[in-house]
Amino acid sequence: MSEVTLAAPDIQLPPIQAELPYDDGIPMESARHKAQMDLLIDGLMPWLAEREDGFVGGNMFVYYSLAQLRNKDFKGPDFFVVLGVPQGERRSWVVWEEGKAPDLVIELLSNSTASADKNEKKLIYQNQMRVPEYFWYDPFNSEDLAGFSIQKGVYQPITANAQNQLVSQSLGLGLQLWQGKYQGINATWLRWANLTGDLLPTPEEKQRQRAEQERQRADKAELQLLQTARNLVETGMNVEQVARLTGLCVSDIQSAHLPMA
Q: Is residue 64 assigned to a domain?
């Protein structure tokens, strides 16, 4: 009996992340748009680091269908979060490779993108990608902030809570406005916060907080030592002896004006 060789079926597998474009070379609309994206990412990174899963990305391509590939529609969200996936770096987000679409998307509006963000993209996130929560914000117009969550397949507006936050049920966090300076720009920023209204600090802010706490502890320890020195002087010990005992300078002990213990 002759051997029969079966031809392999002509199946074209979808491309993987390494085979897909990941940068269109087009910068964000303004320095403030870029800073707003960075602030959303920076504020969430310490929170994400406490989890064992999750990914946060910004201004990177999200691939969700082969039709999208054929149309070469490679643009992605300004900011997005995916939970329940391994942490790690990605060049782009490929839904068929990762197994899921983003849980939350934020678009930063501009004059050139607002119409698409509020209409075509909103429908893509709702009907094709099925993103559970979608928000938009205009970094130059703080009144243009809105959020939506999918209810029975359709986006419904999210109402602000008592802290005037738009709450993400997926993350258990709120989005709220904050007036301040970030990356040298004084503006009204959209920031992450817990549901009691406390902002999630960026890594830089956490470092400053730790430095301030260390300074306060050092100041408290020095005051306690000076108080001890004064108490010793009050017992009749001379200043030079107290200085040797406490390690303080004689001038510091003499100039201390502390209340009696």
A: yes
